[in-house]
Specification:
Structural class: alpha/beta
Order of helices and strands: HEHEHEHEEHEHHEHEHEHEHHEE
Protein name: PBP domain-containing protein
Radius of gyration: 19 Å
Number of strands: 12
Pfam families: PBP_like_2
Number of helices: 12
CATH architecture of the largest domain: 3-Layer(aba) Sandwich
Domain PBP: 24-260
CATH superfamily of the largest domain: Periplasmic binding protein-like II
CATH class of the largest domain: Alpha Beta
Keywords: Signal
Number of domains: 2
Largest sheet: 12 strands, mixed
Signal peptide: 1-26
Length: 281
């Protein structure tokens, strides 16, 4: 793992920007949270913005997840929620502004010692269902799942009807491994011999995850392949603010949607919306 920590504090970011840290007070910190992968995408943008706006400080705590971040935003505890999905109707009723930011490939990943570079959809179904219980070298395969309500679970199950059935079989096993958050999932795959799971490209790149990414059906999970319509798995990234978000937070979101911000996001594994962020109705 890299030195990025999810408890990225206002003080650390002020130091990274070259400014002397100052005590944070109410209304003095841009509070951002969301899914682990969306927060990973924002980290380089936060550092770039902090470097040019020395008075701006950020609070990025461990990820609450998309739903948890939306509850915090609606409750006034956050300025910006970064989601891996669209805003739900009941959330939109709270008077939020949602911007479609982009998509990042959801990549099939394994423990780094698994001697594979690709997997096809049919084989992935057999792995999840248990029909293929070991890797070619004899190492037992350990599938790392996400909760059923998690966006990445829906994306993976949407690969095919067979994949949805295989996922059902995998999570019905008494020994099923289910990781609640993105960082937990990535950590489990990284430290569990023979493990397989899924991670977003933005997390792989920004966090420098010690994982082995696999091409799917011969297509690597890259921004270019996603843009060309050749790669099939991806999660959305949505930036959300509320009427209580500070002017400083709104200015940061404007930066994220600018050409400079989108270029940084693309380097971090995100296919951003052409021409800027589109407001979702």
């Amino acid at each position: 793992m890299t030195s990025w920590k999810l408890g990225l504090t206002a003080t650390l970011l002020a130091a990274a920007a070259g400014a002397a840290p100052a005590p944070a007070v109410a209304g003095d910190v841009i509070r951002v949270n969301g899914s682990g992968s969306a927060l990973d995408m924002l980290k380089p943008l936060v550092l770039a913005y902090a470097a040019s706006h020395r008075l701006e400080r950020f609070q990025l705590d461990p990820p609450l997840g998309s739903s948890g971040a939306m509850k915090a935003l609606l409750g006034g505890a956050l300025d910006v929620a970064a989601l891996s999905r669209a805003v739900l109707p009941q959330e939109a009723a709270g008077g939020v502004r949602a911007l479609a930011y982009g998509r990042t490939p959801l990549v099939i990943v394994t423990h780094r010692e698994v001697a594979r570079s690709s997997v096809d959809s049919a084989e992935l179904e057999r792995i999840y269902s248990g029909a293929t219980p070991t890797w070619p070298g004899g190492e037992p395969i350990r599938v790392v799942l996400r909760p059923m309500a998690e966006t990445k679970t829906a994306v993976l199950r949407g690969l095919s009807p067979g994949m949805a059935r295989a996922d059902d079989i995998a999570r019905a096993r008494p020994w099923a491994i289910v990781a609640v958050t993105d960082p937990e999932s990535n950590e489990l795959v990284a430290r569990t011999p023979g493990a397989i799971g899924a991670a977003t490209l933005t997390s792989i790149l920004v966090e420098g995850l010690p994982l082995r990414p696999l091409a799917l059906d011969g297509v690597p999970g890259t921004v270019e392949a996603l843009a060309q319509g050749r790669y099939r798995l991806a999660t959305d990234i949505t930036l959300v603010t509320s009427a209580r978000s500070s002017p400083e937070a709104l200015a940061f979101v404007e930066f994220a949607c600018s050409a400079e911000g989108r270029a940084l996001a693309r380097k971090s594994g995100v296919l951003t919306e052409a021409g800027g962020c589109g407001e979702l109705r």
